[in-house]
Batch of 2 targets.
Target 1
Amino acid sequence: MHSFFQDLKYAVRTLLKRPLFTSVALTSLALGIAVNATVFSWVDRILLRPLPGVINAGEIVALKTVAPNGDLLDSSYLDFKDFQKQATTLSAVIAFKQRPLYLGDVATGERVWSEMVSGNFFDVLGVRPIRGRTFSAEEQNSRPGSPATAVLSETLWRGYFRSDPDILGRKIELNRHPFTVIGIVPSAFQGTVNGLRFDLWVPLTMVSELTGSFYWPDDRNARPLDLMARLKPNTSLKQAQAEVQTIASRLALEYPDTNRYLSAAVMPIADSPAGAQRILGRLLKVLLVIAAAVLLIVCANLGNLLLVRATMRTKEFGIRASLGASPRRIAQQLFTETLVLAVGGTALGLLASAWMVHAVEFFVPPTDLPLANLAHGFHGLDLLFTCALGFLAAIFCGIAPALQLFRHGIQEALREGGRFSSPAARSRILRSGLVVFELSLALFALIGSGLFIRSFQNARNAYPGFEPEGVLLAGIDLSQAHLSKPQRVTFFQRLRDQLTSLPGARSASLSEHVPLGFDNGAWEEIRIEGYIPKAGENMKLWRDIVSPGYFATLKIPLAAGRDFNERDSSASQPVAIVNETFVKRFLPEPPALGRKFLLWDREFTIIGVARDIKYQRLNEGPMPYFYLPLAQAYSSDMGIAVEVRTASRPDTFAEVLRSRIRSADPNVLISVTIPFASFMSASYFAQRVGAHLLTVLGVISLLLAILGLYGVMAYSTTQRTGEIGIRMALGAQPAQVLQLVMREGMGLCLIGIALGLIPSLVLARLAASALYGVGNHDGWIYFAGALILSAAALLATWLPARRAAHIEPTKALHWE
Amino acid sequence: MPALEAVQELSPKELEERGERLRNDGIVIRTYDLWKTYIMGDQEIHAVSGVDIEIRRGEYVAIMGPSGSGKSTLMNLIGCLDTPTKGLYYLNGKLASDMEDDELARIRNKEIGFVFQTFNLLARASALHNVELPLIYAGVPSQERAERARTALRSVDLEPRMHHKPNELSGGQRQRVAIARALVNRPSILLADEPTGALDTATGKEIMALFERLHSDGNTIVLVTHEPDIALYAHRVIHIRDGKVELDEETPRPERK
Ligand SMILES: Nc1ncnc2c1ncn2[C@@H]1O[C@H](COP(=O)(O)OP(=O)(O)O)[C@@H](O)[C@H]1O
Ligand SMILES: [Mg+2]
């Protein structure tokens, strides 16, 4: 112990004596550790702790209804009740639905993202209130429309309510309906969707009061609910899976009208279809791998620096050895120095990473969703991970010089006066090996960024089947408007007319959903006249509800028939427009126009065929899809989007649009106005984040590896000065000397490239599902990566080579 | 010898004609008022100051002087390893003092064979490869290269050891490899800077005997030394002191060993 403190003191002193070396070492180590700590904190937050604030979150699983084609669907309230009652592998099931609510006045009110939840919600998740109480299962078993109680997040309480000490029992207005605050839950709990933050919870039984829709909890066919369950201790996912499947098939027998062909599945939250882990999971894993590569490059660089220093310090070691220090003792000393560096680097890295974690926010597309702060503070696990990394880095960096000492023994290291003696040659091989390692990792990182840049380009340039450029979107909410359903439909018509006649507007429309946002839209089960579904065929088809002019505004071409018009009203015959895949799949015998399908006990006649577009994701396959007219299919709990194609840049039109909507009805709330192109960037969010972050890591790797190569080449030419002098005396031209050095450097680079290609190919495999449209024809990415690396390596070797070529032979020959 | 001004004012054409004349007269080395000045801080060190020497083909000349007198500096200038601060230097009729780096490298390769006190062999290369080096830079094809290198090694009696690395050879053997390397390109002059400095007396004598033989084979040899008895092997001794030629004399024949 005493000797350790002695070493420590000595190490600090030695490091302070070499400020340049020490600062270079510390900065690069801090950079490597910061990058890793940052990526890991994202991984930790998004993949390892998808449900912050939840007790024993590992036991929580998502419970989904499964369509015959394997699609994962939401569930009905009655199914939820049955699962809750019957499942023995699950200690409990919870149900919830997300929705923005308006808190307070329309004028001054705040739009708060909320969850309508089953009574057992907080108990099952193990979320304890910091004030008051949460809901109870019993109070919700009463009747619809009660209790009108609300639980607030700590954030909302501290912010909107200014930490009101008398908040409990206070009456608040939600969507114009009075609620009583009964409790506050800690801000660590953010709700049930990974990556989103909810601030308010109300009982599910209040759904009609809050949304104005019918009381769907009574309807087994209405499936708007997300379910989660807590596994009983010592129960495996497999057992639970088997059981929910059994229950689902029992329900299918018991309620064939609503549940035939439906199954159920449980899955870890990390695999559930909603949440940030779905969008970012694969990318995060790739980032983690590349970040590790960055750290390894840093370590190899540092290892080389330390190796060179150890070589230069042989004299010092000799003196210490002659004073009785064993090689082990000296290696220990060396290692202590490395450890001091590692501790410093880790501390600095942690500081830097506290700042770097915010990088991901920079790429978040504009959205009205309540995105959670992914740059959360450091969690215990992150800290542990980072410290472990720092320690491993120290071992890795210290190993080369220590190895050299042990391998050759200190005596030999001492004798190593001549510059061509074999220990020097061996340490040279070690140095070269480390640089080759760095270069191969840099290529790996470069190719990683190349793949994601390509994917981002592909995604951004992909034609989604319509033209998002030049379209402005707005979200409107009519829950505060005192309008009956027919009045709302009239309002839509009037609004559309007014918007269309605005100067600067080419066309305008309204719809329930818009393609390529963060959410998938809605589906309906239909029966198509003259089409007999195969056993178990999924007839639940995605759909949208749109006003006339929707296809013109988005420039979705109609392949046949006509668009909806003002005469398609609730009084006239129900009509529909289907896409081409719908026709191909269900109506192969022409004509498609005039054919009918059954939905909601009504018969819809197909009057138009629209070309396919991308509805949910840019890389989705073709899917049957249909549209219904707003005037015929609107229901009061729908959110409505407004689309306007503008003559000038859409964002310049936002204010006009807002004021026009407000003047049409001041009680209609506008949630967002956003150009379609920006809105759509949600569909390639991961590509965007990936391309940018991996480019940063790629450039860092390249710079570090090239710096490493430069260092090794510079050192090696210094070591070879004598040899170069001899060659010059014998008539080597400056150009030949240049070549000699360049050949060595580029040789290392080529080996590095060869070794780096292999893991890069593996990386492409690993990343495949996170990439968009990157395939075999993109081999040039590998080539480009190798080219960039070679070009940089050329520069890194050219500088020392040029210096070598201009060595004065007389000086070189005196080099003894 | 012409006055300084007269030489400096020559036109390029006249300089060339002068070189032509020197070569026709069989003069391999001719310097006119050669200077080499080092700046050390605010101090000027004239390592070579105004040297005029002339060496003919086939001569065996020693440059002698005490340590620090400027022998090595002069040797570097003559060997085209360095360029003079001032003055003219003709090597084989060509004005070396005017040459660029590339040309100097070519001259070193073709016209000069170096023998150094510390041998200056490439440690990781075999004797054969060391001898081949000048041929590589001369662009000789590999077949002929190996052949000529072997011949050169044979002429210093080292052919059997040609695959040995320098650290497997004795000091005398290393110097002989260096001499073979100096000769392999058939240079106009052989420049040796303290060639026996790192050797024991007996081995030094062997090496001097080898030089003697090389001289009688027709080589021009310039030997730099600070030891008078080594200088006596040469036929002419140029005494240097403080960068200047102090005395230029024939060695008395009978005293030669
Ligand atoms: N590169 C140099 N820079 C500065 N001074 C030098 C340099 N080379 C030689 N000198 C100086 O020039 C003088 C002559 O040196 P040198 O030619 O090596 O003498 P010698 O070979 O006769 O011992 C000495 O005073 C030496 O210190
Ligand atoms: Mg000398």
Target 2
Amino acid sequence: MAATTLPGAREDSPLVALLKDAGIAAAIAFLLALPLMGFQTLDSGTTVDLQYRFHWVAIATVGVFFGRIVFTLLYRRAGAARSKAPGIVGQGMARVGEGLGRFLVPAFILFALILPFLPFADRREIDLATYVLIYVMLGWGLNIVVGLAGLLDLGYVAFYAIGAYSYALLAKTFGFSFWLCLPLAGILAAFLGILLGFPVLRLRGDYLAIVTLGFGEIIRVILVNWQPVTGGPNGISGVPRPTFFGLPFTNDPAEGETAFHEFFNLDFASLHRFVFLYYVILALVLVTNAVTLRLRKMPIGRAWEALREDEIACRSLGINPTNTKLTAFAIGAMFGGFAGSFFATRQGFISPESFTFIESAVILAIVVLGGMGSQAGVVVATLFLVLLPELAREFAQFRMLIFGAAMVLIMVWRPQGLLAHRAPTVSLGPGSGGSR
Amino acid sequence: MLRLSGVHTFYGRIEALRGVDLTVEEGEIVTLIGANGAGKSTLLMTICGNPRARRGEVRFEGHDITQMPTHDIVKLGIAQSPEGRRIFPRMSVIENLKMGAQNFGLAHFDEDLDRIFRLFPILKDRQSQRGGTLSGGQQQMLAIARALMSRPRLLLLDEPSLGLAPLVVKQIFETIREINQRQRVTVLLVEQNAYHALRLAHRGYVLVNGRISMSGSGAELLANPEVRAAYLEGGHV
Ligand SMILES: Nc1ncnc2c1ncn2[C@@H]1O[C@H](COP(=O)(O)OP(=O)(O)O)[C@@H](O)[C@H]1O
Ligand SMILES: [Mg+2]
């Protein structure tokens, strides 16, 4: 206290301090709201007109003023309670999360399995669920790199793009089936991961972030400029759609082919394809999770986590840091490649626009928000960051605002991520334990 | 067993070791004492090849390990408990121990675990506790135990007594003697706590500003007036 108060300076009474604080917040809100909310451009065909919405600014400013007062009063009380035992509160939350996990995870998987047959599930819902699952898969893939091995990769979208273009080109040029292209795309992405990783993984965290950021952009620029192969900015259209083990999902199959609905004696419905795609990505996601959980229990997974905690200690224990990081990088890249192939076959059309830096940023946000290394956290964070904005399309104007508010709230309440809790990967049975 | 001859190590342009000659024979406890910043930790790290010696040679059991990568050196049978312990704080005791063993296959893990738990019974009681929540002394024991999990023939210990209460220091040094005598592990011990270290060691070296200034048996160095004046006066427990 004494250090921050100048001698002679009077300390404000609590009420004055509160009003001052709220006034400052309102002033900031005013400055921000003026350009963001105060003007609206109206395109009247030939000219662009400005419309003024100063009442919005006023509402925002007044709202922030009183909101800040309420928040401060509430937070002060909560803060007083929390500061007594911050650790216990945090641990308690993690433990609650763990206990819930035991019931929630199977329930969640069951829900995902029967989703297409639920009464409310139509084309739009199933397609949206597919879209969300792609991000879950990308989140889990990047989680290996960032969450487990602690390597900050800002160019993860590159591997997603490589997977997508590999599938599109292999399938279009050679007529390979999806199930053949999938592993090929994964291998190709992993190979590029190793190629990139080999020179750069010696770099420390912040430099690694910059190099991977550059790598992501380089891949995108190549896709834009290598016209003859990638189609440039126009991308590749007519990417082969998936077939049900050779049975296409179309109403008018080519000569000599049997369509899915004919084979199973169903009426044709475009829904079939969406349901099939949904199950494909669900299977991929479950496999990704199973592999990650398995890897975490294996020596290599433990080495990733140890490396994240202390690289020098790892060296002195005989672990080869470069190889360990490379495996994390390659496996993460492989899952990105799988997700990319799936994306290409679902979309039927790909272009460099789908693989911009913002994708990397969203995937990274999913991992960080989920709690760096937590599998369930990634799912929850994906629902937050991908599903919520899709559902709230009507409020598109406020998307970024809500996004920012959510980020701030999470930083205040759960700075370690939504579900940051690390359960030991090895434990001995109660019988062999010591005194506890 | 271990022989350093004319070793120079640099950090950029700073010369931290200026021509060190040092030998460790099989079965010995050798201690290296010296003031803060003398280069003791640098010497241990140079043996492990991180950083590497710019000039001179490090030989271990006939192998020239001067230019070897750290992970290969460790596989030859050298283990280090680094300065500041550097256990993995978010991992449990058992996981920490597994990290020590895993590059050598986990085949002997249970057997080695029994051995370690006999040496450090407290770790058995705390096996599922996170490393970061152990006390300082327990963390030091864990760091030594973790190094031992790779079945080393030469154990490098960097200031195991740092920041520990006198009683705990005594216990740790007792354990080091046991590791040396019963488990036949050769020990190179870096210490600022010169009194305990010289009493424990067969031989000792004194490092001053990156050079060995004195060497001799533990008892000789303990009796040496210069050593007494520089490292023991009023300091010992
Ligand atoms: N990573 C480093 N980079 C640059 N200089 C270092 C580094 N580590 C140690 N030094 C310098 O090398 C000298 C020896 O340090 P160190 O081996 O840690 O001494 P000790 O372990 O005997 O206290 C010191 O002058 C120290 O400042
Ligand atoms: Mg030191």
